[in-house]
Design brief:
Length: 84
């Protein structure tokens, strides 16, 4: 019979830093491309709209993650299990 693997350490199991860093990278890309548009007349092309989409998805994903985590802490019966 195989032994179950040990659980991940809390610092490695917490997705918050990764999500925040990824969203921050999209924010920097968006601001940089917008600045290039305003200063150097660079067109707002697919790179800009892709970075805006990445930023929006990062904010949406983090918001849903926080919402689920707060529901677990409140004791709601409907959220995803295993979040703390």
């Amino acid at each position: 019979m195989q032994k179950a693997p040990p659980p991940l350490p809390p610092w490695l199991a917490d997705p918050t830093p990764t999500v925040l860093v990824g969203t921050g990278v999209w924010l920097v890309a968006t601001v940089t491309l917008l600045g290039a548009h305003l200063v150097a007349d660079r067109p707002l092309d697919d790179w800009f709209w892709g970075s805006v989409s990445g930023l929006a998805l990062g904010v949406l994903g983090y918001s849903l993650f926080r919402w689920q985590r707060s529901a677990v802490r409140r004791g709601s019966r409907s959220p995803q299990q295993g979040l703390t």
